[in-house]
Amino acid sequence: MYVFMKEVWLYSVVCLCMLQSCTRIESDESGEQEICFRGNVQELQQVNLSESRVGLGSGNKVQLYIVEQDEEGVKLPASEDFYQMSSDADGNVNFEDGEKHIYPNNPINIYGFCCKGMEGNPVNLLKVPVMVEGEQVTGDALLRSDFLYVKSEERYRASDNAISLSFSHQFVKLQFCFRTDTPETVDLGQITTLEVLNVVREGNFDVTTGELTLGDAIDDIQVQPANESMVIVLPQRVKGGDVLFRFVQGGKERSYSVPAAGMSLEKGKVYKCDILINQYPGAGDKDVVISTRVEDWDESEPPIHIVFEDGQNVVATLTDVASGVVVNRADLYLSSENKVHEKLNIPVINNKMEFMFPREKKGETLRLNKARFYTEAGDEFDYYFKDKELLGDNLDELSLVAPKVGDAWGDGVIFAVGEVTGYDENTSSFVTDVKGINAYRGRMVSSKMLGELAWCESGAKGEKVSVGASDKNNGKTNTIALENFIKMNGEKLENYPAFVTCRDLGDGWYFPAYNEIRCVVANKDMLNVKIEEQLGDLISLVELYGSSTEKEGEPTHYIGPDKIGKTVYPYTKISQAKVRAVRAY
């Protein structure tokens, strides 16, 4: 028979991701190539539950199903494909039967799982019984509740190449962190009970597809009551209004109920629950604030954050909304001294919005940095605030006065307000429509010059031929034209430095078109943008600003920073020029 494995990597912080590596050895007797396995367990973090490690320890079993495939299709694993592997004290993973295995003639697919305490070959691979412990007050019980699964994404043929398998978590981890800003009145050592309520604890797992089918029984899970605790549950949907967990602190019972819309506990996710308990001297009991972040259990991927909180309901009012604009929903992006908050999907009725004010300390205020507003007509727009402090006293007002040319906006300065409809040669500025929602639309230029860059590198396919970047008013259109040219000609964007540098500034930024940078240069005083002046009649490369627009008969446009935004020739696409990025807002 045959088998594989590679270096076993098990990440803690609740990430048990195992990479296995194989070595092939020539057999003297048959000339067949043997597959040997060895695994090195990466050093793992200690967890706060007992002194155990979250990871593969001595005696842990890994169930593998190595399936020989024919050329016609994928075969699902069967009981006879089973190979059990065992980990020793040194972190090596070996076949438990002690025999040698070789690659077959046909390619192989690999399925497998690892769960502490689960040994042997399940009778039915379509319905492997799985469960989580009902009492997870020890590290060992927590590990018994974890379930790792792997399914190879490709067929493996006998070769010198190592086989890589990544085991992924199939269940959900909840982490609880209790804290207080008033330790003189709140003793976190008096947390006597912590329970996750009304969850499904059992189900059946399909090894061939990786799908879990939940059972019907609803039960509670007892968690270790401590300042920092964790529990593993099955992925499931919790109904809106149901109590997800409860705890007793200082003899008082408190609980967290799921929002009315319900809540999905997704496999492979860690739900980090921060529980702030404050009781200010002389002020009586205060509301407990619970905020929850959702991250990937495997933290190699960027985490996904959601926030829902129990706190104080406040009302804020929108004022000075542009005529014809009816806001019906809002997202607020706030920050305090130590934390960033996102309040999403806030209903807005008659320009008033009610939301939970995430105050962590008595009398704390929040800084409002940005908001996204959604209108009744289906439009949306971002609005940036400067030095806007919310008091959370139901008297907060958000003025949505339409911005004007020259205002600092986000990471730039506005040079056009409204939807662009043309360019006025006499005033060297854009003609725009500013009615209704367009009052909150326009374009801004980056506050900083990005360097002296070429339109393209020498030898790039777009150096001597047009790429279709002919738009004079919208550099975004020119960027799209270049991207299409690159795809058709098998090039890479890195051959076009000015375009790349503008794009890398962030979402939505681009290398400006001819009239965009022309407008900025001509109106530099109004915009308060540092544009270098020419020195007499001398024109130096470092005093020119490039555009993304190609011009008939000329390689591209370069703008000299005089009062009218003069076009300067001759310069090629590989000439160096100053670059500023532009973005629509």
UniProtKB/TrEMBL annotation:
Family matches, as CDD domains: BF2867_like_C (cd13121), BF2867_like_N (cd13120)
Source domain of life: Bacteria
Pfam family, one: Mfa_like_1
Protein name: Fimbrillin family protein
Organism: Butyricimonas paravirosa
